[in-house]
Amino acid sequence: MPHNVAPINAAVCNKVRRPLGCRQCAEHKGAIFQKIFHFRSSKMASPHPYRGMKELITRSTLYDPLNDFLFYKVMGEKGDEVQLLGFINAVLGKTGDDKFTSIEILEDKTFTPEIIGDKSVTLDVRAVLHGKTKVNVEVQLRNEHNMDKRSLFYWSEEFVNSLKTGQDYIELPDVIAINIVDFNYINTRSFHSCFHLREDNERDVILTNSLEIHFINMVKYRKMKGKLNDSLSHWLTWFDRNSTPELLEEVLKMDNAIQTANERLLHVTGDEDARRAYLVRFRAMCDMTSMQNAAHREGVKEGREEGRLHFLELIDKGLTIEEIRERLNQGEF
C-alpha cells in the first residue's frame, strides 16, 4: 500500500576525496576481509538531532552516496520513502500542491556476497507514485557506451511487465526512468535532460505520457554547482562526492528529505557488515573499470601495429605519401 510521507528531521554528510574502497584507506580501517556477511540493516527508530560538522567531514572522507550499493540502501528500501519521494519530486520539478505525496517502494533486495561482488548486477530503485506511475532510478558511474539502449530496455521491462494476462492495454502505467550518470552523456547544454515521445514537426504534441526518461549528468552539474538554488541542485550537491562539508551543511538545513537521507546514510554506514559490503561493491566496480581500460589500451596498441604494417605494405606497393594520406582520409586505416 502507498506510504504517506511526512518530513523527518535528521543530519549530516559530505565529500569523498578518498572513498572507503582504496586499499590504503581500507587497510587503515581494518576493512580488508575474506568473507562478506549477509546484511539487512534495521531501520532507524527515530531521527537523531543534527550532528554537525564533525560527521560531515567523516562521511566526506569515507563514503560516496552514488556507490550503487549505498544509494540503494539509503534510497531504495522500504522505510526510505521520505527521501526517495523528495528526490523524485525534485527531478520532476514538482513544488507546492503539485508534489507527489505518496510512494510505495516495490522491492527489498537481499544482498548476498554473490550479488555484491557481481559487477553485472544492477542495483536499481523501483517505486510506484500514487499507486499508478512507476519510477525506476539507476546510478551509472562508468560509461559503457550503451546508456540510451540500456535505459530504454529497463523502461520497457517496467512497462511491459506491468500488464497481467487478460488486462486491457489501458491498464499500462506511465513509467519514468531516472538515470544519474557520472560521465558526459547527451549533447545538451543542461545537466538535466528529459525525453518524451514527440511529433517530429509539431514539438508540442506528445504521443503519450507513458514514456519519460531523465538523464542527470553529474559531470556537467559540477561545473554549474553554486550557480543554482533549486531542490534538485540541493540533492545533487548532497550526492556529489566533491562537495565541501560547509556546502553540505547548507543543503541539509534547506531540505528535510535530504536530512533524512543523510541520517539513513549514517545509520547504514554505522553497521560493520554494510561497510564491508560497500567495500566489496567498490572493488567490483574498480575491477570492471580496470578490465575495460586494459582492453581499450590493448586494442589501441594492436590497432597502431596493424596501421604501421599496412602503411609499410602501401609503401612497398609504390604509393606516394600523398596517395596514402588520401586513403587515410577516406578511412582505409
Number of helices: 12
Strand percentage, roughly?
5-15%
The end-to-end distance, rounded to whole angstroms, is 60 Å
The largest pleated sheet is described as: 7 strands, mixed
Number of strands: 7
Mean pLDDT: 77
What does the model show?
It is a single chain. With 333 residues, the chain is α/β, with parallel strands linked by helices. It is built from twelve helices and seven strands. The chain has helices spanning 23-28, 53-62, 68-75, 81-92, 113-117, 147-160, 218-224, 231-239, 245-254, 256-269, 272-316, 321-329, and strands at residues 3-4, 102-105, 125-129, 133-140, 175-181, 192-198, 206-217. A seven-stranded mixed beta sheet has the order 1-2-3-4-5-7-6, sandwiched between helices. A hairpin with a 7-residue loop joins strand 6 (192-198) and strand 7 (206-217). Helix 2 crosses helix 9 (245-254) and helix 4 packs across helix 10 (256-269). 33% of the residues are buried.
